[in-house]
Amino acid sequence: MKEALATAKHAVMRLPELATDFLKNSIIGYLFEAKSLSDAVIYTKYWILIWGSILKFVVKLIFKRGPVGAFRVIRHYPWLLRFFSTTKLLRRLSRGRKGAYLESTALIIGSIALTLVEKLEEVVYQPEILLINEDLVPPEIGMAMGLNVWLVEAMGILLPLIHSDASLNFIDEAENAGMNPDACSFVKAAVGMIVKNQQPIGCAIVSSNMPCDAGMASYTYIQKAYDVPIYRLDAPYNFHGERAETLFVEDLKGMIAFLEKNTPGRMDWDKLREICEGRNRMVALELELWDMMRASPAPLASEAVWLSHLWHFYMFPGHKEAIRVFERLVELARKNIDAKIPAVENEKYRAVLWNPPFPQFPDIFNMVERAHGITLIMDSMTYNHHDFIDTSTPDTMLKGLAQIIMHGPMVRHTRGPAENYLDDIFRCYKQFDLDMVWVANHVGCKGGQAMNGILREKCREMKIPLLILDYDLVDPRIVSHEGMMRQVDDFMETVMKAKRPAPAP
Amino acid sequence: MKVFQDLLETPLNDLVEQAVADGRIPIGYSCSFVPEAFLMADRLFPVRLHAPGVAGTEIADIYLSNFICTYTRSLLEFAVDDRFDLLGGWVFVPSCVHMQRLYDNLEYLKKPAFSHILDVPRKVTAATLAWQTEELRILADKLASHFGVDMSHDSLNAAIVQWNRFAAVISSIGELRKPPEPLITGTEFHRLLMAALVSPKDLILPKILDFKQEIEKRNGIGKFRARLMVTGSHLHDPELIRVMESQGGLVAADLFCTGSIPGFMPVDIETATDGDPIRTLAEHAFKKTLCPRMMEDFDRRVKTIIDTVREYRIDGVVIEIIKFCDLWGVDSMPMVAALRNEGIPVLKLEREYALGGEGQLRTRVQAFIESMGK
To answer: What is the pTM of this model?
Structure first.
């Protein structure tokens, strides 16, 4: 009785805090803050879309599996409950934004909700044709073979976006199971989910030597845990040139043969053509967007660049929803360019972020926009020099995909020679007329860490302001959000000579 | 034994200096996927890169960061300190990200006259074997062009014969560890082996043969409580083995980069494909090197450990991992489970490249031996 009273008292004491939190993160709070009626309408539209997607998934689950079956699914994948907070993510990332820029943010989160539901339905309702892919193995081939492709590491990105602590128990689980604590937390999170049996199993696995040693090595454990056949792609170190392309195309053909032998999938070259042409369309639209991003001030920024690419190119290449998103992003950018409206009202600095963006603290881009006028123009997971895939024949399509894989982010940067890392940064810096380079200095990324010395010296030579921001990809315990912001503030004050923003009340 | 210890005091020892004075060319290498025999052609000779007595890595830390394995940091530190200036060239493999970045930073800081990355694939198929063969051919051409050395088939065949002779001697000494009453400790064997890897083979072989004659006359090496096998990352300092053995655990078998299992199986030139020594060396490198960088080799690694445990009457396996090594760090997770499933006691040790924390190491090994009931 005493305990119950204490709990009730605690709950009552927390009411003001909960109310503040509710107003801060809810749609009601937004509607009070909305800068215009049109912003309120846009926000509400995507808020409804997101909740509609979530409820559609839940209702369909209950309908198809019954209440008990639905409960079993949730019990197997308890992280699904995190997605009830997706609108909080919308609220956090859209703070202070308006007009086309607000809509671009909401569009991407809405699209993630929509396509995620589609992906989750594949996992739940069609497990017999589920192919497990490592995150940098593109899904095009699996999709063209009539398989549903699940990226093991996808939840390692998505869950911390919604709640920064979402991966912690998985990380701890992996370490308790014997994984080295200094391994990349992204890999630990994926492995931890498997240790806890919270990932779908699938009929086969395709992994690779990308992007790093920990990622590659983790698939030994994953394959033993799943006990399904595995194929491993091997991108050469010297991946430029015909010789490397020939080797890797053979590897892709081996992958197809493996999948035809071990899964119900059968290659449909017409379907692959359709997917590749859809992907090409996305690339064309993205290039158009990048062209507009070169304008100063930029018409869009941040999630319109990195999250749009990360989710849609890696998970849904060629998908009609992905194409629609990029078409709309181009329209929104053009709208702002024509009306001379900047994404960030007070754009003072243009930045590129090198190494994967901060999944456990995506708010940082929004916060630095408002605090310092820093616009995130580009990031390394997005920036590439891919050509369009030549869809004339199966061989040309495989060659195109091979080039995309081998020249992919992290692969060409951290697995390849240093020139790939450095040349890309400086090329991007020039191409987008930037003011600074940020390095997301993930403590578990050895390939990135070991380039900082050279990068510092090169940037000094070229008088490029460089911020090496220490943090952990998906573990906020290593460096707190406050600690990350402090590093930004210190950099802005000492290097950029900008006034330190007033502390938050 | 002191002669081998002395040869390990410096990164490039007296025998290396003697060979250089005779007009020969030392080529530094860091990975077992570089065939030693390949680097023994004509006037070339291989020197396994090591950093004995490294006291700190202050400069290397600036460039490579504190989160990179201390082996690569130690090598970079020594390189920046001009400790490797006698080397004619460097041959690396993209063994791991740390090694790749060592190469990148070395190129940036020292700009060596000759350095090369041998792009060894991470799995073995017909296509990757052909790739590896081509990679060696490219390296052969580069070496020939830069140093004016003979990298022809005849020259490589002669080098292989020489290497096989050397490997046979090492293997025969390694065999002396198998019996219940071995004639050589793990420390002695590792000193000998490391000295052989960092010296010209022809110059050290007579010393090894003398030593072999000496130990064959031994009655024994004393009593040990348990027989251990050590596997894992680069292990260059025999002192680490000595500390383990000081607790009563005889290190009777080794499976690491600079170990002998299965690293000294002979190169089979009798049945060489098309009589091509380069292809033979490519095949041999894949067969004799067991490393977690090879994506599909886990089962073979585990089987080799289990077979060695049976063959060498091993009581327990020590997996030693240099801190920040993702390959061994992550690979050890299923490996420990697989070995324990076979009833093999396992101790997983995290360490730095240079011996440190000797007290803790002693305690852990002692406790491990006691836990086996020995």
So the answer is: 0.94
Give per-residue pLDDT as tens, A314-358.
Answer: 999 999 999 999 999 999 999 999 999 999 998 999 999 999 889
Domain that holds residue A386: 126-494
Q: Which residues contact A227 (CB under 8 A, 6 or more apart)?
A: none
Identify the closest residue of chain B to A453 by CA–CA distance.
B63
What is the distance between the alpha carbons of residues A477 and A232, in angstroms, rounded to a whole number?
33
pLDDT value, residue A504: 57
**In this complex, do A182 and B64 lie within 8 Å of one another by their Cβ atoms?**
no
| Phi and psi angles of residue A494, each rounded to the nearest 5 degrees, phi first | -85, -35
A417 touches chain B (CB under 8 A): yes
- Classify residue A431 by burial, with Cβ atoms within 10 Å: 0-12, 13-18, 19+: middle
Q: What angle do CA A217, A218, A223 make, to 5 degrees?
A: 105
Residue A62 forms part of a structural domain: yes
Place of tokens 């080295």: A180
- What CA–CA distance (Å, rounded) separates B160 from A219? 36
In a domain, residue A76? The reply is: yes
Say yes or no: A224 contacts chain B, CB-CB below 8 A.
yes
Asked if A229 reaches chain B (Cβ–Cβ under 8 Å), the answer is no
From residue A280, alpha-carbon distances to A31, A292, A321, A377, A392 in Å are 39, 19, 14, 22, 13
Query: Where residue B271 falls among pLDDT bands split at 50, 70, 90?
Result: low
Do residue B64 and residue A449 have CB atoms under 8 angstroms apart? yes
Q: Does residue A413 surpass a pLDDT of 60?
A: yes
HSE-CB for A276 with a 13 A CA cutoff: 26
Q: Does an H or E element contain A64, and which?
A: helix A37-76
Q: E-assigned strands of A203-268?
A: 204-208, 230-233
- Residue B66 confidence (pLDDT) above 70: yes
Give the model confidence (pLDDT) of B305-352 as tens digits.
999 999 999 999 999 999 999 999 999 999 999 999 999 999 999 999
By residue count, chain B amounts to 374
A430: distance to nearest CA of chain B, Å? 23
Q: In what order do the strands lie in the sheet containing A130-133?
A: A148-151, A130-133, A204-208, A230-233
Residue type, A170: F
Counting beta carbons within 10 angstroms of the beta carbon of residue A370, is it exposed (0 to 12), middle (13 to 18) or buried (19 or more)?
middle
Q: Distance between terminal CA atoms of chain A?
A: 39
CA dist B339 and A449 (Å) reads 33
> B4 in a domain, yes or no?
no
Is residue A398, in this structure, part of any structural domain at all?
Answer: yes
Any idea which residue has 């309702």 for tokens? A125
Q: A292 and A185 in one domain?
A: yes
Which helix or strand (DSSP H or E) is residue B334 part of? helix B326-341
> What is the predicted pLDDT for the residue at A143?
97
Domains identified in chain A, total number: 2
pLDDT (0 to 100) of residue A122? 96
Amino acid sitting at position B359: G
Of the candidates B31, B11, B35, the residue with the CA atom closest to the CA atom of residue B99: B31
Q: Please report the pLDDT score of residue A34 as a whole number.
A: 86
| Best mutation target, A220, A243, A355, A449, to test chain B (most B CBs within 10 A) | A220
Can you tell me whether residue B94 is helix, strand or coil? coil
Asked if residue A62 and residue A141 are part of one domain, the reply reads: no
pLDDT over 70 at A90, yes or no: yes
Q: Which residue of B has its CA nearest to A247?
A: B127
Output the domain CATH number for residue B93.
3.40.50.11890
Residue A464: predicted pLDDT: 97
Domain that holds residue B81: 13-155
Of B104, B122, B123, the CB nearest to A418: B104
Cβ-Cβ contacts under 8 Å between A and B: the total is 140
B128: pLDDT strictly greater than 90: yes
pLDDT the model gives residue A1: 79
